[in-house]
Amino acid sequence: MSATSVNAQLCLLLTLASVCLSSGGKSGDKTSDEEVKSSVGGGREFFFDEHMTVLEEIHMLENHPVSRLLDRLLLKYDRRLRPHYGGPPVVVNVTMNIDSVGPISEVDMNFRIDISFRQYWIDKRLMFNATEGIDSLTVNSNFLSNIWQPDTYFPDSYESKKQEVMVPNILLRIQPDGLVLYSARVTVIAKCPMDLMYFPMDIQECSLMVETFGYTSKDLILRWKDDDPNHRPVEFNRQKLELAQFDLINLVTKQYFLDFSTGNFSDLEVVFYFKRDLIYFIIQTYVPATLIVLLSWVNFYVNRHSVPARASLAITTVLTMITLMGATNSNLPRVSSIKALDIYFGICFLYVFGALVEFALVCYFNKPRYQPKPLAPPDKGEPAVLGAPWRYESANNRVQSNGMLLLDGPPRSPKATFTVETPI
Question: How far apart are CA 220 and CA 90, in angstroms?
Answer without folding.
Answer: 5
